[in-house]
Write a structure and sequence with these properties.
Strand content: 5-15%
Distance between the termini: 55 Å
Largest sheet: 6 strands, mixed
């Protein structure tokens, strides 16, 4: 069972997340804004000191019916108030600017590392491969999209506001505790025949009052950290499934799966609701205590100072100043009480980002033992793999010590039973499968076509040129690629923006992926069931064009296909053959002529 980090560990986690921005290339602007926020917070405290002193003189003028002092103090208050407003506006603006720039930097940093070395793929793979496999590669965080979008916004917001709140409270406490000590005077009393005198007794009462309140608040609110952590996860899971329903609306509608999806969404929303109700109940207890604590603090200083006022030891102005000073000290000491729910959210957010950071670092360190090397500059491009071993995520050997070679001009068809690892072999050659060992040499000018190609939303020309910019190609070249891929109906729609993954059929999406190949003209092509959704005539036409493309470029083509007709376009055949149970792997690679 995972233990919760201690307060020291939590602070180290938060510092570890926060420090990189202030050491980044933007560090001087970041440090300048942070220093400005600190100075403006100190300015806020100074304005509070001025108002505290003003209140004593103002209320004494009221008690003494001193009209001249009264009007003078009203004018003085105007100056203080204007200064306070200016400081407040500047503090708000600089604080928000710091939060925005910090969030922008963190978001770009996390995005670059999440997308680097296919970390996003490895994390998602780890997330869906089960408990035992996850133990081998490290835990994978849920909903990285939410952690990058929402958690970072909350982390930067809460880190700035809460840390400045702590600073403000500490400075206020240091400033006003001396004032309260001088104002409260000694408390003298007799007990069992002995006389006692407690200097600055209201300071000790304020400290004791807040220590008790903070301790009780911590015990009441401690469960909020875990509840907030789970709430963010449940909300993200619910939102993720809603997006999946939207993206797969046609398939769900054809399967008449509305009832099932409704049940699944109800289950996820039920988790959201149950956890939220638990959160509300826990917050109710916390609010009940903090509200009682705050209301009691309104009259508590009057209760303590009233005997001195009625005895004539202090005037009305001093009584009001004592009350204001006591409340200021009490507010500073009660910062934890007043902000516990926000601290709980902050801790939960920091925990989520820390686990995300740890997962990315773990996957960056363990990118797989297989290496890919480009061919020597004076050598002809070729595909070669030696001592290649591939395993399933749970460690089960799939292919052991395989050697393969493809020379320019070759056309190879890879076949085998479903689940034998044909697509996994392609993923290994592409360098994205983390459970592989050995050495592979793959020509740099190679394209891989998956069975289900990715078609981004937006302009059709961008989807066709993906992942390169559409500006790298002329309109004539884009239209010719569509025409050669049997998509003439799309030639006039290059500048149309749409959700193409929803608008195009499965066959049209596969033809769009082939259009990319015909547009970019790679020398080497790896096609994984790239024509499985096409009719026989279209498949024959497109394979002829793909074979001609790679042959003219001096490369080779390797395909995965179940249809026998695809074999007509390939001169060699690889077959994954089941091994006996005693063998070290489930399949072996056998090469034959087609």
């Amino acid at each position: 069972m995972k233990t919760k980090p201690s307060l020291y560990q939590a602070l180290r986690q938060i510092l570890g997340l926060a420090a990189p921005y202030f050491r980044s290339e933007d560090k001087w602007k970041a440090r300048g804004m942070l220093l400005s926020v600190v100075l403006l917070n100190l300015g806020t405290v100074y304005v509070t000191v001025l108002i505290n002193d003003w209140s004593r003189v103002f209320y004494d003028a009221l008690q003494n019916k001193d009209q001249a002092v009264f009007w003078t103090q009203l004018l003085r208050f105007t100056y203080i108030a204007m200064a306070g407003i200016l400081v407040a506006v500047l503090k708000f603006y600089v604080t928000q600017l710091l939060q925005v720039r910090w969030r922008a930097w963190m978001t770009r940093d996390y995005l670059s590392r999440w997308l680097a070395n296919r970390t996003f793929y490895r994390l998602e793979l780890a997330r869906y491969m089960g408990e035992e496999s996850a133990a081998r590669t490290g835990a994978s965080p849920d909903n990285p999209d939410q952690r990058i979008q929402e958690d970072m916004q909350m982390f930067t917001d809460y880190t700035v506001t809460l840390s400045m709140g702590i600073l403000n409270s500490v400075v206020t406490l240091v400033t006003f505790i001396g004032i309260l000590w001088a104002l409260s005077g000694p408390l003298s009393f007799s007990l069992m025949g002995h006389d006692f005198s407690v200097p600055g007794y209201m300071v000790w009462v304020a400290v004791l009052y807040c220590v008790v309140g903070t301790t009780i608040t911590h015990f009441i609110g401690r469960p909020l950290i875990g509840l907030n952590f789970r709430q963010q996860r449940f909300e993200a899971d619910f939102r993720h499934h809603l997006i999946r329903v939207r993206e797969n609306s046609e398939a769900i509608a054809l399967d008449r799966g509305e009832t099932v999806e409704h049940t699944q969404l109800d289950l996820r929303f039920g988790s959201v609701l149950r956890n939220y109700l638990s959160l509300i109940r826990q917050q109710k207890n916390l609010v009940a205590f903090t509200a009682s604590f705050a209301q009691l603090s309104v009259v508590f200083p009057f209760f303590l100072a009233a005997p001195r006022f009625f005895s004539g030891a202090i005037q009305f102005g001093e009584l009001m100043q004592i009350s204001r000073t006591f409340n200021t000290v009490q507010d500073a000491l009660s910062w934890f009480v007043d902000n516990y729910d926000r601290v709980a959210v902050w801790r939960a957010t920091a925990d989520r980002l820390t686990s995300f950071e740890a997962a990315m670092q773990a996957h960056a360190r363990d990118a797989g033992e297989m290496t890919r090397t480009a061919p020597a500059a004076d050598a002809a491009p070729a595909l070669r793999a030696d001592a290649l071993s591939i395993a399933l995520p749970d460690g089960t050997p799939l292919l052991a010590n395989a050697s393969l070679s493809v020379q320019p001009g070759d056309t190879v068809l890879l076949q085998g039973p479903s689940g034998s690892g044909k697509s996994t072999l392609f993923r290994t050659l592409a360098g994205i499968w983390p459970f592989a060992h050995g050495k592979a040499q793959v020509p740099p000018d190679a394209m891989f076509i998956p069975q289900r190609p990715y078609v981004p939303d937006g302009r059709l020309r961008d989807a066709l040129a993906y992942p390169e910019p559409a500006s790298a190609y002329t309109d004539e070249a884009l239209r010719q690629a569509l025409k050669d891929a049997l998509l003439p109906q799309l030639e006039s729609r290059l500048d149309d923006s749409d959700a193409w993954s929803q608008k195009l059929s499965g066959g049209e999406q596969q033809r769009l992926a082939i259009a990319r190949v015909l547009l970019k003209k790679p020398s080497w092509l790896f096609a994984d069931e790239a024509t499985s959704a096409l009719d026989a005539e279209a498949e024959r036409t497109l394979y002829q064009r793909l074979a001609a493309q790679v042959q003219s470029a001096g490369g080779a083509m390797v395909s995965i296909a179940h249809r026998a007709a695809v074999g007509e376009h390939h001169g060699k055949r690889w077959k994954l053959v089941p091994e006996p149970e005693a063998a070290p792997a489930r399949f072996r690679l056998a090469a034959t002529e087609a």
